[in-house]
Amino acid sequence: MPHLTTAATAAAATEAGRLGLGVPGYAHPLLAPVEWAELTRPGTPLHWTVLNVADGPGGRPDPHCTEAAGRLREAGGTVLGHLAMRDGARSFGELVSDAHRFLDWYRVGGFYLAGAPADRAELAAVRRVVDALRGLGEELHLVLGHGTHPYEGYADAADQLVTFSGAWADYRWSQVAEWTAEHPPERFCHLVHGVPRSHLEEAVRIARWQGAGTIWFTDRGDAGGRDPWASMPAYWDEIVSQIGPGVSE
């Protein structure tokens, strides 16, 4: 099949544990109250969800976000603060300052570094940021949101890498980098929008074959500049049932 590169990759994914969900960032809790509430449902196979107040933590604590994050945390979920790297354009100081605010205001359990660079030349700078974030607390979960397969050295820089973020039309014919076969599925995440309900099972199979342990599939699209991640997929119950009950990491 076109989305397979090596037999080893397929075997690794087949033998992997249960898939889990990684929510790349619902809309503000006032605009998406049902979505945030659903994440606290017992048995939801949630690995983490990203809190993005205003392309980061915002300028002051938001009580609605504090409440939503607290409820999810009490339910055993992991909330990640959204740090906008903008492909390396944000400074080290800006990112660490945003991280401090997320920890102080929302007690996040880690960080999602959106727009993380993927080139070898940027690896040292990204490592510096990641090392600083790890120093902010024990057991913080760090996800590099590349959206594509980065230089393989990034695999040792964070807990997870987002190696695909995009449309179903591209995902169904995508190929996985061969070096990913050397790492377990829990190191990789795939985020796919525009997945029709009729292709949901196929999308799950591709994720397993390509060795992704965390996924987010939605039928929402990005037409007209819309954010496809802002609301839950129409087949939310179906995807939760397909993946099966799980616990937060």
From TrEMBL:
**A Pfam family:** Spherulin4
Q: Which InterPro entries match?
A: Spherulin4
List the PANTHER family: 4-LIKE CELL SURFACE PROTEIN, PUTATIVE (AFU_ORTHOLOGUE AFUA_4G14080)-RELATED, PTHR35040
Q: What is this protein called?
A: Phage-related protein, tail component
